[in-house]
Amino acid sequence: MIINLGYVFLASALAVSLYGVIVPHLGVRRNNWNLVRSAQFASIVNFFLVLGASTVLLRSFLANDFSVRFVWENSSTDLPIFYKITAFWGGMDGSLLFWELVLAGFTAIVAYTYQRVNREIIPYVLVTLNIIHVFLLSLLVSWSNPLDVQSPVPLEGRGLNPLLQHPGMAIHPPLLYLGYIGFAIPFAFAMASLVRGRLDNAWVISTRRWTLGAWYALAMGLMFGGQWAYEELGWGGYWGWDPVENAAFMPWLTGTAFLHSVILQEKRNMMKVWNMVLIIVTFGLSILGTFIVRSGVLNSVHAFAQSEIGPAFLIFLSCAMLVGFYLMFLRIRLLESRHTADSLLSKESVFLLNNLMLVGIAFTVLLGTAFPLVAEAVRGTKLSIQAPFFNTISAPLGVTLLFLIGISSLVAWRQSSWGFLVRTFRIPVLAGLAGLALGLAGGVRHLGALVIFIGAAFTTTVIVIDMAKAVRVRSSQSGEGWLESALATLMRNRQRWGGALIHLGVVCVFVGLAGNYFKSEFNRTLEPGKPIHIEDYTLLFKGMADEQQGNARLRQAVVELYRGENLVDTLKPARSFYPTQPEPLNEVAIYRTLMEDFYMVVAGENPDGTATVRILINPLVMVIWMGFPLFTVGTFLAIFYRPRRLNQPLFETELEVAR
Amino acid sequence: MAMLTSWKFWAVMLGIVALTGLFAFGFTKDPKLVPSPLVNRPAPAFSITEMNTGQALSSSDLKGKPYILNFWASWCVPCRQEAAHLEAAYQKYERQQGVLRVIGIAIQDAPEAARDFAKRYGKTYFLAVDNKAGDIALNYGLYGVPETFLVDAEGIIRFKNVGATTTEVIERDMLPLIRKK
């Protein structure tokens, strides 16, 4: 039977992974590179075995094979094909297999690409990664087997959770997994470097792209998650400080800190201990993320399938952290560097400050997320930490970061002079004041929002001036046209300009977040044919209508939306009924403009033909989504950057110093 | 080793162990055990039919005698565990002593699957299946199954248990609440 074949694949993969844990070590011991080669090959075989098992599961979904328990739990015959595919990671066991598949793919890539380079550390990179494989595969063949069969075979499946039936689900969980798992690669390189005592910059340079890729995937995963929550959950926001959201946010924060602090190691040979700490913690938080989502230890609105594997994850996490930090302390002498920041007024200091802010936010989030447990352990009371706690602490830290992005581009490495600073700060500061004026003119009176506008204008100006200067220099030297120069400049220093684009994306996200300070909410009962005015909108309720969409029946309120005299949109917020689910879900209707979203949810349909709706006017939400293209293009540019060796001149500024 | 005398090393290691302990402690607690707002309020009304015999029963018929209202499903794993305990409670307190009724309502379940389950796990007390819309489940604010309510003779909910309802839970938490009266 084909399902058994899948199980055989998984069991074989476990055996191959065990081989990969032991043999590279033997290879190093016996100084036999062929053994290491065989383990590299085994990693590639492992990938194909896991791919085979995944194909079997996917086939069962497509064939409605409800003899597979996992398929029965997460699919049904009326489920559209698209969601039969995404149902693969809709439940615990499948997502674990998906995780293993991605990790196996990454491991195979590492094994294949580093056949000749990094010889000294690669055996232990493989050992580390294979230990993770052994852990995951052990769960997959035992407690958490997605290919588990049941008898008698039910005729119909229980259906995919309707909340998970959203196009975003095709992309949000895989992106988060790519991010979580992506950080396993730099972690493995870090561990291998510690084991071998090779603590130059090789591991940092080799994993730069992995780190950036993982960071990007997490960032996108968070953004898509926010968008999903905004469009699907119907409470009008995109971020609720839910433990599950926090779980993905924490590794992103420390990953961002790592991404910046490795630049210091790369360029200035500083922060080696700190980078170790960050990568160990980031990997730990990635595992913690999965643990929180799946263990049911913390209460979450994401009440997805929980399972018995929580303790296993906790033990694994705990061991990984203990071993990681043990190795780090073992090599601490080799890691301590003589370099420190030369001056308070230097890029190094700004990077340090940036790291402090990011880790500060991560710590706050961890504290807030875990505090309900502490409270219960100490005082035996149930409580939940709400948004105000997180907002109060992370907002000032976040806004500081927004300013730091701009400042870091203005100060030089090593030391900046005050005179230089005053000159370069002048225009951006003026721009910041212009941002303030613009906000005030737009009627914004909330301090938090105004500070964000100042920071956004300041930082954007710094970045734009920076780019403009570089393009001007290029254009005057080469005599090329403006556009050609811009492209050439962009391509020549991809890391720098990629970073600049990502920073612009971050500015967009901040500006969008500022909108939260002045959003407004209304509850109205709509009578058919009777117009209602809300701010500068006019609503005309046409009545209720039924529509069949996929496997759901929608009960829509049809509302014409006018701005002034013009019909701008016909909104159809609805309640949807899924055959396999008892409760109706809200289908949100949104009329979007750059300045604000008109967001409408049906709260209830009344017997007299009226409908009660909840309306939110959410300013600047569209600006947040502008982060998507900026992050994407920026990462794409930066990821094709090759770090230069340390013995080469690094920066224009250093060249100047050298001269 | 120098490492073993470094306070930083021990601080980090202890920190990890403490965090692990905290999360391990989390396993012993269920965050969903927030006291139900329904406790000490009248039980929401329901009317059901026995899934094997078709006998009708509504909550108003139950006035005058306390009852255990257990929500279960054929696809629920802890429900297998509690099945024997509930059946034992039925045999002892309903059939022999006549002090307490036991009623089970399956939610999100197909009647055939529910019947199979009852047969396999030997449930013989009054069993019904909630309608497709899950009205009763909604009225009782269920997070999942199994969840079990104790309703007293006046129709007031006195206790709610999340997870498998074992003989221990019935004897320790439920019986004292109705014997007091």
Characterization of this structure:
The complex is a heterodimer of chains A (659) and B (181). With 659 residues, chain A is an alpha+beta fold. Chain A is 63% helix and 11% strand. In chain A, strands 2, 3, 4, 5, 6 and 7 form a six-stranded antiparallel β-sheet that branches. The longest helix of chain A has 33 residues. By secondary structure, chain B is α/β, with parallel strands linked by helices. Chain B folds into two domains: 31 residues; 133 residues, Glutaredoxin, CATH 3.40.30.10. In chain B, strands 5-4-3-6-7 form a five-stranded mixed β-sheet. A two-stranded antiparallel sheet of chain B has the order 1-2. In chain B, a hairpin with a 5-residue loop joins strand 6 and strand 7. The mean pLDDT of chain B is 84.
Spatial strand order of the main sheet of chain B:
5-4-3-6-7
Tell me the fraction of residues in β-strands of chain A, as a range: 5-15%
Indicate the CATH architecture of the largest domain in chain B.
3-Layer(aba) Sandwich
Integer count of domains of chain B = 2
Helices of chain B, by number, come to 5
**Total beta-strand segments of chain A:** 10
| End-to-end Cα distance of chain B | 68 Å
Shape verdict of chain B = elongated
Largest sheet of chain B: 5 strands, mixed
Structural class of chain A: alpha+beta
The residue ranges of chain A in which pLDDT falls below 50 over 5 or more consecutive positions are: 645-659
Residue share in helix of chain A: 55-70%
From the helix content, strand content and strand pairing of chain B, which structural class follows?
A: alpha/beta
Global Rg of chain A: 27 Å
Average pLDDT over all residues of chain B = 84
